[in-house]
Amino acid sequence: MKDIQMGAVEARFADIIWEREPVCTTALVKMAESALNWKKTTTYTVLKRLCEKGIFQNDGGTVTSVISRDDFYSMRSEKILEDEFSGSLPAFLAAFTKRKTLSAEEIEAIRRMMEEYEVEKK
User: Fold this and answer.
1) What mean pLDDT is predicted for residues 79-87?
2) Is 41 exposed, middle or buried (0-12, 13-18, 19+ CB in 10 A)?
3) Widest Cα–Cα separation across the chain
4) Phi-psi category of 119—alpha, beta or left, where left has phi over 0 and alpha has psi -120 to 50?
């Protein structure tokens, strides 16, 4: 599995792109200046880094995603699960719920997801 990572600041910038794509680099510079207080050079440097990681592409000044936000975070979750919990979702949930109490709504949402998963796999 390809391990693509982003730092917190890169993730905030990526969210700006994902929420507005396709976005021209001129508009992106203005958005990053407003939201992150970045200079033009910082925006282009971070954009270049995210393009090199294969998350985005800059084609003639128009930035689009190569990997969607959902796919990116799904891949990251799978990588964490594999690396930290030997691929065991029950082990992850056991560790997670030792320190955090799930609300009734969260439990119900998980039940619905599992039921939908079972239906899809039949």
Assistant:
1) 92
2) exposed
3) 52
4) alpha
Measured distance CA(36)–CA(106) in Å, rounded: 32
What does DSSP say about strands 62-65 and 56-59: parallel, antiparallel, or unpaired? antiparallel
Decide: 19 and 42 in contact? Cβ < 8 Å.
no
Task: Please state, for a pLDDT cut of 90, what percent of the chain lies above it.
Answer: 83
4/2 Cα distance (integer angstroms): 6
Q: What are 15's two structure tokens? A: 């969210």
Q: What predicted TM-score, i.e. pTM, was given to this entire model?
A: 0.78
**DSSP-derived secondary structure for the chain:** -------HHHHHHHHHHHHH-SEEHHHHHHHHHHHH---HHHHHHHHHHHHHTTSEEEETTEEEESS-HHHHHHHHHHHHHHHHHTT-HHHHHHHHHHHSPPPHHHHHHHHHHHHHHHHHH-
The two structure tokens encoding residue 59: 């084609």
Nearest residue to 14 (alpha-carbon basis) of 34, 26, 28 = 28
